[in-house]
């Protein structure tokens, strides 16, 4: 097994790395901002990592706060995630709903077969790292973390399959927050092209892999250009990840 594969979040050494980094970041957060909210977020992160999410702490906190914000603003629509793996980022958003006492539909799209191969629109590094079954999660693991955190599953809609087939026929109508965590150009591009028009004006699109995988960056830039939106609409989240708000 090559080193890149071994250090991916799918295997124990990769999970150990994620845990180590996460503990350091949590320590820094608690030292910089010792508050009830920080403690609550730290506890949530420790519960979802490393088994259920590979998403960076700052991005998880951003998702939690954004869902809390759309709930407080009573923005209509579902929470949609494209790229679920084992459900940690979805659970973080569902925890924000629980904590604000708001119920929303959650639409969770994933092949649950892992990432598809990158294409020529992705970069050499994506190709060199790729192996079949990379980031293969499961619905059972998503359900497990929801149960562990006592989060309701009755409004969670799992859509298992490749986006190319599942998204064009998805029944989701209105989206308050669209979280895209699907790595490659084609996947990110397809989600944006098919689901952005269903985002409520004033709603949010969150891009986990922005500033990390070049294919994701290109997909986002091409999409913004196709809609006449400048790149300045993007707000960065730490070293990787970004979000933008659909104009109201
Ligand atoms: C980085 S993982 C998601 C991580 C997850 N959000 C978390 O909390 O750790 C990317 C996921 O996207 C899914 N994916 C990527 N492209 C896809 C496509 N075209 N169709 C279906 N699933 C896809 C993969 O199966 C994988 O589970």
Provide the residue-averaged pLDDT.
96
Order of helices and strands: HHHHEHEHHEHEHEHEE
Q: Which residues form runs of ≥5 with pLDDT under 50?
A: none
Ligands: S-adenosylmethionine
User: How many structural domains does the protein architecture include?
Assistant: 1
CATH class: Alpha Beta
Helix content: 40-55%
Radius of gyration: 17 Å
CATH topology heading = Rossmann fold
| Helix run count | 10
Q: Any idea what the CATH architecture is?
A: 3-Layer(aba) Sandwich
State the distance separating the first and last CA atoms. 49 Å
Q: Name the overall outline.
A: globular
Estimated share of beta-strand residues = 5-15%
Strands across the major sheet, in which order?
Answer: 3-2-1-4-5-7-6
Question: By helix and strand content, what is the structural category?
Answer: alpha/beta
Main β-sheet description:
7 strands, mixed
CATH homologous superfamily heading: Vaccinia Virus protein VP39
Number of strands: 7
Describe this structure in words.
- The protein has 248 residues and is an alpha/beta fold.
- It has a single domain, classed as 3-Layer(aba) Sandwich (Rossmann fold).
- It has ten helices and seven strands.
- The protein has helices at 3-6, 12-32, 36-48, 57-72, 88-100, 124-129, 139-148, 163-166, 185-195, 214-226; strands spanning 78-82, 106-110, 156-160, 175-180, 199-207, 235-236, 242-245.
- It has a seven-stranded mixed β-sheet with strand order 3-2-1-4-5-7-6, sandwiched between helices.
- Strand 4 (175-180), helix 9 and strand 5 form a beta-alpha-beta unit.
- Helix 9 packs parallel to helix 10 (214-226).
- The structure holds S-adenosylmethionine.
């Amino acid at each position: 097994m090559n080193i890149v594969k071994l250090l991916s979040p799918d295997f124990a050494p990769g999970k150990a790395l994620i845990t180590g980094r996460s503990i350091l970041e949590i320590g820094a957060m608690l030292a910089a901002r010792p508050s009830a909210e920080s403690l609550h977020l730290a506890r949530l992160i420790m519960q979802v990592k490393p088994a259920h999410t590979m998403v960076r702490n700052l991005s998880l906190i951003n998702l939690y706060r954004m869902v809390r914000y759309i709930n407080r603003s009573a923005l209509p629509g579902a929470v949609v995630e494209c790229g679920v793996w084992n459900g940690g980022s979805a659970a973080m958003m569902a925890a924000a709903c629980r904590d604000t006492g708001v119920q929303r539909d959650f639409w969770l799209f994933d092949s649950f077969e892992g990432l598809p191969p990158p294409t020529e629109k992705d970069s050499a590094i994506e190709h060199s790292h790729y192996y079949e079954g990379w980031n293969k999660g499961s619905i059972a693991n998503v359900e497990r973390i929801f149960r562990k955190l006592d989060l309701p599953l009755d409004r969670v809609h799992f859509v298992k399959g490749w986006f190319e087939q599942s998204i064009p026929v998805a029944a989701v109508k209105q989206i308050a927050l669209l979280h895209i965590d699907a790595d490659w150009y084609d996947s990110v591009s397809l989600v944006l092209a098919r689901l952005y028009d269903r985002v409520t004006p004033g709603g949010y699109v969150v891009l986990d892999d922005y500033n990390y995988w070049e294919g994701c960056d290109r997909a986002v830039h091409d999409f913004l250009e196709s809609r006449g939106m400048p790149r300045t609409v993007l707000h960065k989240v730490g070293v990787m990840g970004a979000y933008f708000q659909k104009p109201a």
